[in-house]
Amino acid sequence: VQLQASGGGLVQAGGSLRLSCAASGRTFGTYAWFRRAPGKERTFVAAYTWSDNNKQYADSVKGRFTMSRDMAKKTVYLQMNSLKSEDTAVYYCATRENRIIPAYRPMDAYYEYWGQGTQVTVSS
To answer: Is residue 40 very low, low, confident or very high in pLDDT (cuts 50, 70, 90)?
Structure first.
């Protein structure tokens, strides 16, 4: 399985970016985005379950980031609005074959497949 994450770039604070995650023309039970800021550990950003269209967000991005899907393209998106300098990080798409219960979605150990990462840089 190869996950293709894309959409990163350089944006000014307050701007927007949309990240995409697609995998070999198929879908998975759970999708998530994690990020790793410079010098920090990887942290949970958002998760999405395909079967019930359920979305879950880290407190730091609630109200600013939104996950969505395109069923025809079998692609999941992370729309990032009102970006802040502290959002600067490498963003990773991760998936699992099955649906993960909400309590476990922020835990990276539960994900089976990972994308290569896409850099998001927010300038202040």
So the answer is: very high
